[in-house]
Design a protein that fits this description.
It comes from Ditylum brightwellii. Helices cover about 50% and strands about 20% of the residues. It is an alpha/beta fold. It has two domains: about 35 residues; about 120 residues, Glutaredoxin (3-Layer(aba) Sandwich). The N and C termini lie far apart (about 75 Å).
Length: about 160
């Protein structure tokens, strides 16, 4: 089989156009991803836990177990908590509370750092500051805990 001869300048032009299109596509996708705040609950594990909670944001984190009935029943409410907090972020972009979850039955190293004794367990984490939530498992109470504690964190940031 014979291949057609390609003019080097045509090949160079073709390569440049393909590279430009690829670069623009990747740049646009990255810009769209950055412009959209995350929605829902972010799954945290050994690969991304430390980098996520140290990213400068405040994190509401649930430690759960797939076999835990309380966790399973609460999952839709926790998803709503996440979407509510992300909705607040849309209204006030400087106020960002991320929402994550850790499978405590599979992530023993992370779980042991927080001395988890039962599931579900909830923590608000900002850098090295950690506060455990021990209130009702309701949408209103969890959102209030996250936002009030966030306000306290902001006051500390501004004073320090």
């Amino acid at each position: 089989m014979k291949f057609p001869r390609i003019n080097p300048s045509s090949f160079f032009l073709f390569s440049a156009v393909v590279s430009l299109i690829a670069t623009l596509t990747v740049t646009r996708a990255a810009a769209e991803a950055e412009a959209k705040p995350p929605t829902g609950v972010i799954k945290l594990d050994a690969r991304n836990f430390d980098s996520s909670i140290r990213d400068g944001n405040v994190w509401l984190v649930e430690f759960y177990a797939p076999w835990c009935g309380h966790c399973t029943r609460f999952a839709p409410t926790y998803e709503t908590v996440a979407n509510t907090l992300h909705g607040m972020h849309k209204k006030n972009p400087s106020r960002k509370i991320m929402v994550g979850k850790v499978d405590g039955s599979g992530e023993k190293a992370i779980t042991s750092r927080f001395n988890i004794m039962g599931y579900p367990s909830f923590f608000l984490i900002e850098g090295w500051s950690v506060r455990q939530y021990d209130g009702k498992r309701s949408l209103e109470d969890m959102v209030k805990f996250a936002t009030v504690t966030y306000e306290e964190v902001e006051v500390r940031r501004n004073l320090g």
